[in-house]
Amino acid sequence: xxxFSHVYKTYPGPTxxxxxxxxxxxxxxxxxxxxxxxAGKTTLFKMLSAYDKVTSGQIMVAGFDLTxxxxxxxxxxxxxxxxxxxxxxxxxxxxxAENVAIPLMIRGDRPQSIERRVREVLDQVGLRDRAHTLxxxxxxxxxxxxxxxxxxxxxxxxxxxxxPTGNLDPKLxxxxxxxxxxxxxxxxxxxxxxxxHELVKRRKKRVLSLFKGQxxxxxx
Amino acid sequence: MIQKQLVKGLSDNLSxxxxxxxxxxxxxxxxxxxxxxxxxxxxxxxxxxxxxxxSVYLSSSVTPEQAQEVRIYLEGRSEVGxxxxxxxxxxxETFQEQMATYAPDLFSxxxxxxxxxxxxxxxxxxxVSAIEHSQVMAHIAQSLQSMSGVxxxxxxxxxxxxxxxxxxxxxxFTWTTIAILxxxxxxxxxxxxxASILRRREEVEILELVGASSTMxxxxxxxxxxxIAFLAFVASCxxxxxxxxxxxxxxxxxxxxxNLGRALVFxxxxxxxxxxxITVGVSALSAWWVIRKINSGYAAASKGQIA
Lengths: 220, 307
Description:
The complex is a heterodimer of chains A (220) and B (307). Chain A is an alpha/beta fold. Chain A is built from seven helices and ten strands. In chain A, helix 3 (96-107) packs across helix 4, helix 3 packs parallel to helix 5 and helix 4 packs across helix 5 (140-152). Chain A is globular. With 307 residues, chain B is an alpha+beta fold. Chain B has two domains: 2-47 and 162-300, no CATH class; 53-155, 2-Layer Sandwich (Alpha-Beta Plaits). Chain B is 70% helix and 7% strand. The A-B interface holds A 11, 15, 17, 40-43, 46, 49-53, 71-72, 74-79, 83, 85, 89-93, 102-103, 105-106, 150 and B 1, 8, 202-203, 205-214, 216, 296-298, 300-301, 306-307.
């Protein structure tokens, strides 16, 4: 499902964000990615979501070779995955509900179907009463939940979440993790980056550690 | 989704779009005006050119048979309307009448009959178009030159040649102006859309990241540019139409130029449709060129963010 093969990512400087990364995640797995700040977690997620291109190596995700993907295939690939960005990436001039609806509108779903599904997902993340609010009037935690809702609204095959519980209180964090585990149980591959070691310990899932751009595997 | 983005794009960047509209309106007005000038240059030629007649001067030693041959040739041409023979005596008489006040001594000059020859005066039929007029005249003159008994031929060719030369120079200038203004319009459109896109770059990045296709992202910006161009096109047509009416009325109220005023033509519906397609097409092209540089699939990454 997800396969990294000798992946390097170097930024000008040079800054070696990823060095010879090798990993494999099977369909339906739940994987945590941990590591200190600057280890390369966000960079790895950017490569995984085709946000940016690798310097060398190969990445296979959901049948797409991201190192050789054509420009016209990129939107097709991105519709198959759900991504929760660390900085949320919500459209400032759209309400929470409108932001969440975007993946469905892009897919061409009918308005009634979109409305129903958006309502359902907002209920799941506890944002039903903030549906018609603009992101700038929502707290960090609410924006984060809106980003999660947008990432799962179209029931993607792969969910990539960069610090999805970073701005949430422990109770809400647990609820979100329960939601992600339910998704995983339904067949979605879930890949979560987090600093929260306690959360990782509690959930007892496969753990990949990243340190100075290199992967170290472990299970908790 | 596209409509919402389009409305937002037009309303958010109103000041930029108003500036672009004004500049494009001016450019398009000059372009359309130049096209109208080119179109009506031939009208001028037809107005004055069609009143030209040809004088075929016969030599003093011309025989009746030679004169008859010239007449038969002229009357045999399908383009020729009226052919009139003026004898030497008739020409002298006319000349004396005209010059009596200025040079009365000419009446007594017997050698006048050798200086003023007989001639044929010819005019073409009205069915001959303005464009063909000078060509037909030149062809007839060339044929007559080789005939015996013909001394000289005049048909205002100097005037026509000068008018053609000036006309060609004006056309070259106007086409160069049109080309420069079209390039300028491309630049103005591209700049306007670039400003619009840069203000909403984050939106482009996010839409890319959630899987919006290039068509979904680019269409609102291209439509934005086309709408501004269309409004500028309408404004330029109204402006040119107004100026055209004023000029036409001025000419028609003048005794000498009233025929010219009546003969002037504005752009035809087909001309306007072609002009619309070109102006709106150029704007759409420039918008597409700008947006595709940003909407490459990696808009967010190309901003230079490092994790």
